[in-house]
Write a structure and sequence with these properties.
The protein is α/β, with parallel strands linked by helices. It has helices at about 30-35, 35-45, 55-60, 155-170, and strands at about 20, 50, 60-65, 70, 75-95, 105-115, 125-130, 135, 135-140, 140-145, 150. It has one domain: Class I glutamine amidotransferase (GATase) domain (Rossmann fold, 3-Layer(aba) Sandwich), CATH 3.40.50. It is built from 4 helices and 11 strands. Strands 3, 4, 5, 6, 7, 8 and 11 form a 7-stranded mixed beta sheet that branches. A 4-stranded mixed beta sheet has the order 1-2-10-9. The mean pLDDT is about 95.
């Protein structure tokens, strides 16, 4: 079910899971922050949530841009800050723990492309195999990361997320 964190006042009824893809939340920070109904709905949502890059930034406590500090959803500790430095490259990651998306030890490929940074706050979602760095955030029903996953590199990721969402939708 499609929905807009910018325009919709809440999540759609009957939603089993949430997938927040990448984007440019810094361009819409004021509007995202102003949509308090959606922010509250995401905090209250009990199903699985997967967010990548811009979705990770949106789920954090706040987003710091040149225009100011904007409160975001608050599901993930820490503030994302825009920087002039580009983080770019292909990554191979390994899941550090079970989550709505992965089981511990599963590996997948993806890429990073962002002009922001945020503090590494445990529990981390992934270990980046190329560098050993810890990446993302995984706790309970939530997994969020700067990595844009390439699902064909590990099809079980999408299968697991859909199964978890279907299970929540039946509850």
């Amino acid at each position: 079910m499609p929905f807009s964190p910018l325009a919709d006042p809440s999540l759609p009824e009957g939603l089993g899971g949430v997938y927040l893809g990448g984007g440019y939340p810094e361009l819409y920070a004021e509007a995202l922050s102003a949509n308090q109904g959606m922010r509250l709905a995401l905090r209250r949502f009990k199903g699985p949530i997967y967010a990548e890059c811009g979705g990770l930034m949106y789920l954090g406590q706040a987003l710091q841009t040149d225009e100011g500090l904007f409160p975001m959803v608050g599901l993930i500790p820490g503030v994302s800050r825009m920087t002039p430095r580009l983080a770019l490259g292909y990554r191979t990651v390994e899941a550090l723990k079970d989550s709505p998306l992965a089981q511990r030890g599963w590996q997948a490929r993806g890429h990073e492309f962002h002009f922001s940074e945020r503090p590494a706050i445990p529990p981390a979602a992934w270990r980046v195999l190329e560098s050993g760095a810890l990446e993302g955030y995984a706790k309970g029903r939530l997994l969020a990361s700067y990595i844009h996953l390439y699902f064909p590199s590990e099809p079980r990721l999408a299968e697991r997320l859909v199964a978890q969402a279907a299970q929540h939708g039946e509850e």
